Amino acid sequence: MTKKSIISLLLLLSISVFAQNKDFDFLTDWPIFSDNQNAQYHHYSAIAMEQLQQRKDIINSITTPEQWLQRQQQARQTLMDIVGPFPEKTPLNAQVTGKVKKNGFTIEKVIFESRPEFYVTCALLLPDKLQKKNPAVIFVCGHSAVGFRSEAYQRSIQNLAKKGFIVLAVDPFGQGERLQYFDPETGESKIGSPTREHSYSGAQCFISGSSAAKYMIWDGIRAVDYLLTRKEVDPKRIGITGRSGGGTQSSYIAAFDDRIYAAAPECYLTGFKRLIESRGPQDAEQNFFHGLANGIDHADLLEVRAPKPELLISTTRDMFSIQGVREISAEIKSCYAMLGATDNFEKCEDNDVHASTKKNREAMYAFFRKHLDLPGNCNDEEPEPYVEEEWRVTKTGQLISSLGGETVFSVNAKESQQLISSLDEKRKAPEYPENMVRAAKSLSGYTCPESPSFPAFTGRFEKEGYVIERYFIQGNGDYVIPYLLYKPVTDQPCPSILYLSPEGKSHVAESGTPETLVKQGNIVMVPDLLGIGEMGPIKFHGDAYDFKVGNGAYNIWFFGILTHKSLVGMFAQDIQLLTAVLKQHENVDPAQIKAVAKDKLCPALIHAAVFNPVFSNIELVKPLTSYESIVMNEIYDPALIHGTVAGALTGYDLPDLMAAIAPTPLQIINPVDHFSKAMDKSAVQDVFKNVEKLYKDSDAENNLTIVY
Known about the structure:
The protein is α/β, with parallel strands linked by helices. Helices cover 39% and strands 19% of the residues. It has 24 helices and 20 strands. The strands form three sheets. A nine-stranded mixed β-sheet has the order 1-2-3-5-4-8-9-10-11, with helices on both faces. Strands 12-13-14-16-15-17-18-19-20 form a nine-stranded mixed β-sheet, sandwiched between helices. The radius of gyration is 28 Å and the shape is elongated.
């Protein structure tokens, strides 16, 4: 075949595929659905905006100082409920690994343990001219791979020290010398940037009902503990500041630790309304467990501290909306005014991008000079040249290769093992199945959907012996669910199949699977759930998750955590809705409805089948075997996260739901582990031993089929 003929054939094939795609992805012809690729984001946004409005109504109803104090108390308790409880305080075992004299200050290289063998690397800058007791400022940095050693942070740190402040610069976990996934061969993280270091382990924490924020806040609280061991520090004059991710940490830590008197978060706080409208949910630590659902917004982090001094620092062209900064500033200002402390809340902004500016730095120096009672000049000076060895705290430049110790993963795994052991005990109780289902509904954010709307018919294709019809229905929100319906040409009642695939209905149709099933006498429904297919563009391929309004593979999942509406719970609702619609179609035998799910949609079908037991048969193709497997293994496939539920291990796991399906026929085909890899027979049998037991106890042993 010539090169020209090959090109012609490829063009013909591409035209054919395009025509098929247009046949199966038919909403493109409806202008009102032109933004369907963002429908899932819009759905979550609508939920979030409703939750934010409920909070706003509460704030707007406050008219007295007493009501503000009551709001503070409620917000503090809510924050503790959704972040805590924190571990007990254990010995810091602080050590100074070296000292370096600089012009105007001395660097002490410090390591302490915020938990046993959970090491925190810091630099303590001691000014040359120390008073009897000096004020101290904790500096927490943003998402710099080198932590507080980056040039931008060095400028602020050194200037504060030269102005007489004791400065404790702290490496957040996943940054600087605290990489959680350190690769000794490359000297870098095995999984990527600080953002990935945070979210990768943070996702495991969420599944266990914990959070990355909890670890960072606790590190900050223990940093205060360390400062109070130093005779040079005045315990009544402690401040905190940080930019970007450091803005997150400084606002969090100050909200949880009353010993911090003055706080100056920079370039993060903006309010969730504008964050959602612009950037979307960010890294793991920047999302509280069910935070929006519990009425917590960025402003609360500062309002719970009133009337203590606070400076909100921002830039007008920051990726974090300046409009949001101004809006929350107005709310916070009204709180301070009502409490009679107007002068204790300040706001500073400069015209720049997401960056540190001279104007903002000098405003920060002036703020701490005023409120930590250390008069002097506020001029921004050139920092000392950075020399890597002078700021290296550990021998090798990384804790893991120097001291070993714990990581967020290892600590969370130990805590999760306790949850797993507790579940094993609960499974022995006769009331466990009922409690387990209740927990799964609650944790997933599932709500029973309303009666389905009548489907909109958009066309039919006649084939030999069957037809393909196109429909869409209203989903459980302001979105639609398109689906293809394959129907045999017959007037007789037929068994039906709900076929769920993360690859979308167009891909399934082109695979020929529905054609095979309809020719066997089945009516086949193939939908695009929200975020899939032409309702996408979610791609379940590791980190190739394509999300136009936001970043990374985790962020839409974090949205579900903030709003207490998990992807799994949302899909389960839509599966129930689709099942009700399928029953309405002509010639569908309601007693013979089979459900098939592939890959990442298996957890959603498992939940739906237990919440609404209407299926006569269930088939799971390459299902994840358990949430436990993700939490208990350091490295996992991020694509699996979309099928998980935050907090699940506090109440149940996937095998519990599978067991609850008994005695309904269940086929489990080629189950996969935490890395989406096929498992051997002995491993599968160990995971599913309780499933097999319950089917046997239900005299339905033959209704369970596991294919390895």
